[in-house]
Amino acid sequence: MSSSLDQRPVGLTxxxxxxxxxxxIASLVIAAVQTASRLTPDFEVLVINDGSTxxxxxxxxxxxxIYPQVRAIHHEKNRGYxxxxxxxxxxxTKDWIFYTDGDAQYDPREMARLWxxxxxxxxxxxxxxxxxxxxxxxxxxxxxxxxxxxLLFGLTVRDVDCDFRLMRRRMFDRVTLxxxxxVICLEMMKKITDAGFSIVEVPVHHYHRAYGKSQFxxxxxxxxxxxxxxxxxxxxxxxxxxP
Length: 243
Fold this sequence. Notes:
This protein is α/β, with parallel strands linked by helices. It has helices at 25-39, 56-66, 80-91, 111-115, 136-153, 184-194, 219-241; strands at 12-18, 43-50, 70-75, 96-100, 124-129, 164-168, 199-204.
């Protein structure tokens, strides 16, 4: 695909943060390579292994030997979801960055739907879940979280925590991400919105988790997330309101 902005192909970095995703990561990477190759000849696929204790490291190393466009990046110790995202953004070399999770609850082939919405006036194409395929308690907690943070942070996007995004890499010349926990998504959307970047939204499918378990939905993690959200609100909203 040729860019309307210049004469060269649009560059695309696809990356997956992965933690103990040995049951899903191979199929995701293969689907990403196949899909990205149909969108542009200039692409790379990164997998950020965030200190996995299963076979994730060995699998992505083998994938990088099979596919020249695939690069495996390893954290010796787990740095948290935010740490994995920050490594992915910092390691990307192409004009546009697409990322989604390594647990296969999103289909990387649907990145083509986001790609269609690229234009000179768009900086971020944000996915939103058509229907969340999770246990009822996770759906309820997710909706409460979503509506609470939209109100607290003044956000208008439909789905703050849909980790299925296509964005311009140059945005990160102005937006610096700092969080290591899952609230990095909230931090990112707030900072991108406040910086005035243009956002369009696309519906995407969300699938049942077929392998592994969520790292976020336990009592201790929920308490820490609530504390992290409050700290972020203090930093990005309360302190900026003060004269």
